């Protein structure tokens, strides 16, 4: 039966996240979550939260968290925006900054796969720039006229990052548009462009609490930029959803920002495990790309990535396979605990010895 209203519906090709299995006792290395719990101060803040306040709306600007972040980054409060995860923050940024109907925004061809999804959803023209044979981004590809630039640093799913010189080259050749640097994984050893906010008024930096702060379940994202750009982001947010963060998330996020000691200790654990795992995978014949993230991007000359992905899943070890051009024989492996990574290495040795 033909439904007369069906041709009025939006055609949507959505983003596909890492599989969230309903199985128990899996080793989950497919979503780049932090394997360690959040700060004890976060736990304390949640336990001590006055639930009577849940009958009231949260502060629409998340004042408490915004103030803590401003102090953390050495910025003014009007340079900080918080939203419901960095995905929502970037989506709002698309609506706020990328509005040239005749000029495409630019981003790499191998990158966070949500970028083209937002472009299609918001009807934003875009053009991808091919990374080189080593999956590196070439700054010169971003010299041409455009409607905006978004680049993750470190990039995903490769985990590779660039330094200050690269970021400044992009900014210097794109001073008439907004440049977004998505620093979702920056805390794991990459250069952060926060210091460049003093120099470039068109720079917006996006951070997330989902990776380095162990709060993927709380959904907190951050944008940093000049007051005019942040004010516009707030205006767009208030046309969409005035209360993007709930009161518990604000309290938990603030507690996390105020516990640098725990934050740094878990970062160091992940980095140490990443480096050890990279060496072990290399010893097993994998090509392991240099990573400044909480995951490794790998390929093997004789082992099918798809077959290894499926075999691992059958053993309740979940890693990420992308059936996409250029990377369809590569795997992305999130860094778990030492015990989880030992289990993965043990499985791969067994798989190789079949």
Structure description:
The structure is a single chain. With 354 residues, this protein is of the alpha/beta class. The protein has two domains: 15-38 and 261-352, Aspartate Aminotransferase, domain 1 (Alpha-Beta Complex); 55-258, Type I PLP-dependent aspartate aminotransferase-like (Major domain) (Aspartate Aminotransferase, domain 2, 3-Layer(aba) Sandwich), CATH 3.40.640.10. It has ten helices and 13 strands. It has a seven-stranded mixed sheet, sandwiched between helices. Helix 4 (114-122) links the parallel strand 3 (105-108) and strand 4 (126-129).
Tell me briefly what this model is.
Helix content is 35%, strand content 14%. It is an alpha/beta fold.
């Amino acid at each position: 039966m033909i439904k007369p209203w069906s041709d009025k519906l939006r055609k949507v090709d959505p983003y596909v996240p890492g599989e969230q299995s309903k199985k128990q006792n899996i080793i989950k290395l497919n979503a780049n979550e932090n394997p360690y719990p959040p700060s004890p101060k976060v736990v304390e803040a949640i336990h001590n939260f006055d639930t009577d306040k849940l009958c009231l709306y949260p502060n629409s600007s998340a004042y408490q968290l915004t103030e803590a972040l401003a102090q953390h980054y050495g910025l003014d409060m009007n340079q900080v925006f918080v939203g419901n995860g960095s995905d929502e923050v970037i989506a709002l940024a698309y609506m706020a900054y990328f509005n040239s109907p005749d000029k495409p925004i630019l981003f790499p061809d191998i990158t966070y796969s949500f970028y083209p999804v937002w472009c299609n959803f918001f009807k934003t023209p875009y053009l991808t720039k091919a990374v080189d044979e080593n999956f590196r981004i070439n700054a010169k590809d971003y010299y041409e006229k455009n409607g905006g630039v978004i680049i993750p640093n470190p990039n995903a799913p490769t985990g590779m990052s660039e330094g200050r010189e690269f970021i400044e080259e992009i900014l210097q050749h794109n001073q008439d548009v907004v440049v977004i640097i998505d620093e979702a994984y920056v805390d794991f050893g990459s250069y952060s462009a926060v210091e460049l906010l003093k120099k470039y008024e068109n720079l917006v930096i996006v951070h997330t609490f989902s990776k380095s702060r162990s709060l993927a379940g709380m959904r907190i994202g951050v944008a940093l930029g000049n007051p005019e750009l942040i004010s516009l982001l707030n205006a767009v947010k208030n046309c969409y959803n005035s209360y993007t963060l709930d009161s518990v998330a604000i309290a938990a996020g603030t507690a996390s920002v105020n516990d640098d000691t725990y934050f740094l200790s878990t970062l160091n654990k992940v980095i140490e495990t990443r480096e050890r795992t990279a060496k072990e995978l290399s010893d097993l014949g994998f090509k392991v790309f240099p990573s400044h993230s909480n995951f490794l991007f790998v390929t093997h000359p004789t082992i099918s990535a798809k077959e290894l992905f499926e075999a691992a899943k059958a053993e309740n070890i979940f890693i990420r396979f992308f059936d996409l051009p250029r990377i369809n024989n590569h795997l992305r492996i999130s860094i778990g605990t030492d015990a989880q990574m030992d289990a993965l290495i043990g499985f791969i040795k067994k798989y190789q010895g079949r």
